[in-house]
């Protein structure tokens, strides 16, 4: 089924619950790239090094990774709507506190709390969108990736616009936007029926016992190291004003959105998911290698171009994680994200330190190698990754079309 076929449900013909959740997800994803154009400003304002400021990503994603084990446990007990609201409330509080920081240590700590809230929201939002979307899981994944791409594009732009006046303003701006999202979820999203079975803290880890899901998670771990080397380390290499850096990452995010939603599905239909993923990872490896060794203009072009490969990879990995095993989708997603987010925490920590130990080129060499390793996992484990789990039958449905799957 083509998710773009309006007659079959279509990408744009969705229940209100989907649009409300997707809209709030855009703001949630904005928080990831928000700090990109203002990283040098934060370092200057708080008298911190690039390595210290990069911990804003490390603390955020380290907490996010561990929180993946908790999100299903929480949402299966208090319901999806309340979990979304809890996550949004935590983001509002910690994003606001981040803007008041006087030291880089305080800022890193507040970003950790922000990461917990974002994890609760984002993982539950995916489950809500998958359950509510018309057109099946393919349409749901594209909607989720659309929100991700739009958020990743707008985050740096917002960071640049507000950060040009003060590095604190983007954090306050995010708190306000997430508060609006909180009000929208409160007003327009009805509570979902709770799952028939409660998720335990160990269920996501048990799900990783499936060879296909484990292979997808390991490959995504390698890829995410490359992804977040570009996102967290490149702003220091470009060394541009917030406006110019924001424009670069806005263009990067637009490519990410276009390729994840429009290009990736067409490539998958023509060549198959694993061939597309392997080829895109190799192209990303070549791109970051040229980024590391090229001049300033080349680095700008390669940074923007990487968004295309990242967009394709994001879509294919998400579909693999949701469909490769027989585990319930929220559980499979939690286990997969638990593994891959550790790389998002590791890359911002190691990239500036590798530069200190060697030179500015080597962090990109390492990033290129990890992308190649991700492609190697796809090739070696292709049989385990080709299994597709059956689409679970819905057990309940609300007036807005929100479903809870029986498995």
From TrEMBL:
Q: Does the keyword Translocase apply?
A: no
The residues that cross the membrane are: 17-35, 55-76, 83-100, 112-134, 141-163, 169-189, 210-233, 245-264, 360-380
- Topologically, how does it sit relative to the membrane? Multi-pass membrane protein
Question: One Pfam family from the UniProt entry?
Answer: MFS_1
The entry's keywords = Membrane, Transmembrane, Transmembrane helix
> A Gene Ontology MF term for this entry?
transmembrane transporter activity
Domain annotation Major facilitator superfamily (MFS) profile: ranges = 17-386
Give its localization. Cell membrane
Q: Which InterPro entries match?
A: MFS, MFS_dom, MFS_trans_sf, Tet-R_TetA/multi-R_MdtG-like, YfmO-like
Q: Which Gene3D superfamilies match?
A: MFS general substrate transporter like domains
Cellular component GO terms held in the UniProt record: plasma membrane
Name of this protein: MFS transporter
The organism's taxonomic lineage, starting at the top: Bacteria, Bacillati, Actinomycetota, Actinomycetes, Kitasatosporales
């Amino acid at each position: 089924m083509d998710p773009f076929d309006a007659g079959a449900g279509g990408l744009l013909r969705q229940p209100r619950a989907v649009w409300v959740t997707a809209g709030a997800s855009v703001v949630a994803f904005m928080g990831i790239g928000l700090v990109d154009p203002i990283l040098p400003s934060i370092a200057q304002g708080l008298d911190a090094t690039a390595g210290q400021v990069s911990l804003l990503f490390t603390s955020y994603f380290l907490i996010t990774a561990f929180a993946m084990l908790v999100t299903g446990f929480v949402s299966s007990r208090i319901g999806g709507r309340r979990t979304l609201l809890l996550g949004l409330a935590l983001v509002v509080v910690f994003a606001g506190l981040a803007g008041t920081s006087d030291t880089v240590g305080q800022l890193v700590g507040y970003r950790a709390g922000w990461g917990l809230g974002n994890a609760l929201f984002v993982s539950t939002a995916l489950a809500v969108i998958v359950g509510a979307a018309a057109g099946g899981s393919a349409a749901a994944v594209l909607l989720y990736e659309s929100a991700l791409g739009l958020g990743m594009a707008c985050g740096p732009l917002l960071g640049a616009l507000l950060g040009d006046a003060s590095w604190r303003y983007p954090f306050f701006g995010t708190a306000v936007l997430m508060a609006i999202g909180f009000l929208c979820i409160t007003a327009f999203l009805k509570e979902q029926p709770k799952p028939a079975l409660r998720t335990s803290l160990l269920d996501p880890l048990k799900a990783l016992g499936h060879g296909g899901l484990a292979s997808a998670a390991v490959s995504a771990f390698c890829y995410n190291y490359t992804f977040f080397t570009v996102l967290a380390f490149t702003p220091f290499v470009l060394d541009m004003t917030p406006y110019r850096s924001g424009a670069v990452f806005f263009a990067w995010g637009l490519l990410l959105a276009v390729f994840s939603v429009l290009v990736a599905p067409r490539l998958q239909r023509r060549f198959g998911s694993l061939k597309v993923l392997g080829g895109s990872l190799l192209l990303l490896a070549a791109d970051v290698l040229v980024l590391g060794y090229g001049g300033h203009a080349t680095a700008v072009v390669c940074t923007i171009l990487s968004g295309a490969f990242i967009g394709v990879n994001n879509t294919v990995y998400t579909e693999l994680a949701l469909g490769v095993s027989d585990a319930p989708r929220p559980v499979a997603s939690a286990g997969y994200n638990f593994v891959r987010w550790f790389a998002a925490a590791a890359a911002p920590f190691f990239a500036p330190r590798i530069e200190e130990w060697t030179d500015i080129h080597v962090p990109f060499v390492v990033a290129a190698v990890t992308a190649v390793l991700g492609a190697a996992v796809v090739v070696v484990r292709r049989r385990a990754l080709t299994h597709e789990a059956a689409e679970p039958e819905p057990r309940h449905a609300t007036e807005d079309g929100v479903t809870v799957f029986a498995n």
